[in-house]
Design brief:
alpha/beta, globular, 7 helices, 8 strands, five-stranded parallel β-sheet
């Protein structure tokens, strides 16, 4: 997706995946000029880079930032948000939605999201329906491909923004932070199979 975006923007840049062992994380983060950070390192990246954010998924010249919650720009209303999960991405959404009710296996469980208008599914659980939604509710489903929870929510009439939509939103925000240019969102959507 990022390589397609760089090509469309006429940039001679290359997005390279790098598997970093835990004992090499600090050195890798400190040497990266532009990068994304993914699970399980988002919380560690915030700490290592001295970010004021609880979770970091984007590095810009040594600064730890987060674009995980960029998908919220596509949500028109959010009066009673709920977050299900407690990892790095969940931390980014907790920071963006401090009023959200949070459900996790380490705290309040099972999720009772019946009165929420927006629910963020930020767990890695794909094959089990963790909670049910109805028409009038919106689900942001972070994992991809679409989870059983998201499939059930869509079948019940809830509005679903699935993990690929989340990926494009955060990727576009990262692209703009790295390059200072508008992201070619249509190109990025095509690259992940959304159009």
């Amino acid at each position: 997706m990022q390589n397609a975006a760089f090509a469309a923007a006429g940039l001679d840049w290359e997005y390279v995946l790098r598997d970093v062992p835990p004992d090499e994380l600090e050195a890798a983060l400190r040497e990266a000029e532009y990068a994304n950070v993914t699970a399980p390192y988002k919380l560690d990246a915030a700490r290592i880079l001295g970010s004021k954010l609880p979770s970091v998924n984007t590095i810009v010249r040594g600064r730890g930032l987060s674009t995980d919650a960029a998908i919220l720009e596509q949500v028109t209303k959010c009066y009673k948000p709920a977050i299900v999960g407690d990892g790095g991405a969940a931390a980014a959404f907790r920071h963006a939605l401090p009023e959200a009710r949070v459900f996790s296996r380490r705290g309040e469980w099972p999720p009772d999201v019946g009165d929420a208008d927006l629910v963020i599914h930020a767990t890695p659980v794909r094959d089990e329906v963790l909670f049910e939604l109805v028409r009038g509710q919106t689900l942001i489903d972070l994992p991809y491909p679409r989870t059983a929870t998201a499939q059930a929510a869509a079948a019940a009439g809830a509005h679903v923004l699935d993990g690929l939509e989340v990926l494009v939103a955060q990727g576009a925000a990262s692209f703009e932070l790295w390059t200072g240019r508008p992201a070619p969102v249509d190109v990025m959507r095509r690259a992940v199979g959304l159009t």
